[in-house]
Write a structure and sequence with these properties.
Elements lengths: L2 H4 L6 E3 L3 H10 L4 E5 L8 H4 L4 E2 L8 H11 L6 H18 L16 E2 L9 E2 L6 H14 L4 E5 L2 E8 L2 E9 L2 E6 L3 E3 L20 H8 L4 E2 L4 E8 L12 H4 L3 E4 L17 H13 L4 E4 L8 H4 L1 H9 L9 E10 L2 E3 L11 E3 L4 E2 L11 H18 L23 H7 L6 H16 L5 H16 L23 E2 L1 H10 L11
Parallel strand pairs: 1-2, 1-10, 2-6, 10-17, 16-18
Antiparallel strand pairs: 3-5, 4-5, 7-8, 8-9, 11-16, 11-19, 12-15, 13-14, 14-15
Helix pairs in contact: 2-6, 2-12, 4-5, 5-12, 7-15, 13-14, 14-15, 15-16
Amino acid sequence: MSADMRSFFGRPIIIGGGVAGLMTALHLAPEPVLLLSRTLLGADASSTWAQGGLAAGLGDDDNPALHLADTLAAGDGLCDKDVASRILQAAPKAIAGLSRFGIPFDRTPQGSLCLGLEAAHSRRRIVHAQGDGTGREIMRALIAAVRSTPSIVVVEGVEARRLAVRQNAIRGVWASCSIGPVFFGSQRVVLATGGIGGLFFDTTNPSGSCGQGLALAARAGAFLADLEFIQFHPTALDGPERPMALVSEAVRGEGAALIDETGQAFLQGIPRAELAPRDVLARAVWNHLASGHRVFLDARQRPGREFARHFPTIASACRGAGIDPARDLIPIRPAQHYHMGGVDVDGAGRTSVKGLWACGEVASTGLHGANRLASNSLTEAVVCARWVAESVAGTPARRTRPAFAGEYPSPDPAPVRPFLSRALGIVRDGEALKAVARSLLPLAESEDAASDPAAVGLMIAIAALQRQESRGAHYREDFPHRAAIARRSEITLEAALAAARELGHSPTLEVVM
């Protein structure tokens, strides 16, 4: 280990370079911070790909209480109301604070923010930048701010592999880079690693988002919450490309309609139709596809010729597939999009392991409940990053001794994707969940590259098996009704492994490739 690396010991370590990680680092300034990124900043972050914007009660006809009501309704009884209220009350000020970084939010000719409408929102309250390029523009501005902040040291091309823990307290991070294994000593670590899309074939997330933050926390002994709740976006561009291009629901907010190959609408009887909550709409599209139909988004009339101006990123993806949205139907199908579950945290982002915080999609705050309300995720990351930074800054810094850096393989989700894609999709059943848990158990207990993704998949499968009801994004064919009492779930890796072992050695899941 070089002298330069030793000089970092004791600094807070932020793992992940998306909006949550960058904002946490910026809020910690001028305290020296070490930010670890597996790739160049922004190169493989879901934040960069975000087409939706930030939701907040900013309009003249809106307020945080109305925003809260929509959030609770979408969350299907599982949101933590107090947490959600606190986050959404802070949202307008947090979004206003982003303006100091030079983010070009879309504005009216009069200078006020343009507010868009998305599914399950009762008001126009979505703030965008460059149309559907919101994530890209926010990341561009935050990356520039981080690189110009002297107190933030960014180390790119470094992948965190394990957290060093002693007596349930963080002691540092074992990582890997081009020169081999390295150890960064710190008693303050923030996970900001994003989601789990790389565990599925059909996803709108970067393939590198394979739940590594969940694996780090789980192997450190942390509690995880609500892992069974995985959001599938109803309108991903249906084609051969993987990851799949997202067709933002803002397109439906501007009037685009869902039809099948016969030209008929098929959402009759679903309240709000195209603007129903994502879980409801994703199941409707999935069921229509399963019955032998194809599904298309018809944007030819609305937004019509204005499509490319409003949605340049989506228009570019469509052109790459030979589609002109102003003249052609857009083929769509659901795809994994967001994970409502994550590392269980309190209001300051603290986990059950002393010295470990989590922020962004990797965390489970209680805001999203069983089904995330559109565009609440970036808002959550921006708001909670400040609270996490304040908590980290208020925790005394202590230097730690160097430790041997063990070698752990880089996670490979490829062996796990068939199992999760088959059994943990939009529609689930108990027998398939039991079979996938049995199949993942030997992988999770191994020490090869599939071990961490398999451990994450196993915890999700056991959590889904234990929730014997249908609620929000978790739909069980064998338990199609919602339980009378809403309860959040909690699990550890040790408990998931024990539950999988108890399932015995009956047949595992047969995966058809």
